[in-house]
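Researcher: Sequence recovery benchmark, item below. Answer with residues only.
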């Protein structure tokens, strides 16, 4: 997978200020405000910054946390997981493997009835949804 590298000025020109804040500055959108929180559309979720396929609708589930939740990425190589000790917490950050944009966090062991017992809690603003044809 070829990496995408741009200057911060190029990212600022490509993204809205809100997108830039989340994707490039590891911000978080307010819960229950994102366009994909309750979406049930069948399709592929891609990185808003670079278009890489990240998640599929088949892995999306209702976690009632305020952000879209997935139990697994489309491909394990699509995302990178990093230790995040910001805000006095120990979490695992999820980033796009292609462009290094911040997507959200992944949590384990919360007891959701999913195949992986993982919750990829992803900012809607980090994604675009490509609906399935048909």
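Model:
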């Amino acid at each position: 997978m070829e990496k995408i590298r741009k200057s911060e000025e190029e990212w600022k020109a490509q993204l809205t200020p809100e997108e830039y804040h989340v994707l490039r500055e590891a911000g978080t959108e307010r819960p229950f405000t994102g366009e994909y929180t309750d979406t049930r559309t069948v399709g592929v979720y891609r990185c808003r910054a670079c278009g890489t396929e990240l998640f599929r609708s088949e892995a999306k589930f209702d976690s009632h946390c305020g952000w879209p939740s997935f139990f697994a990425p489309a491909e394990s190589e699509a995302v990178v997981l990093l230790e995040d000790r910001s805000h006095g917490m120990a979490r695992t950050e999820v980033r796009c493997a292609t462009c290094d944009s911040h997507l959200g966090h992944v949590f384990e062991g919360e007891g959701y009835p999913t195949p992986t017992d993982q919750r990829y809690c992803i900012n809607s603003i980090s994604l675009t949804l490509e609906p399935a044809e048909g």
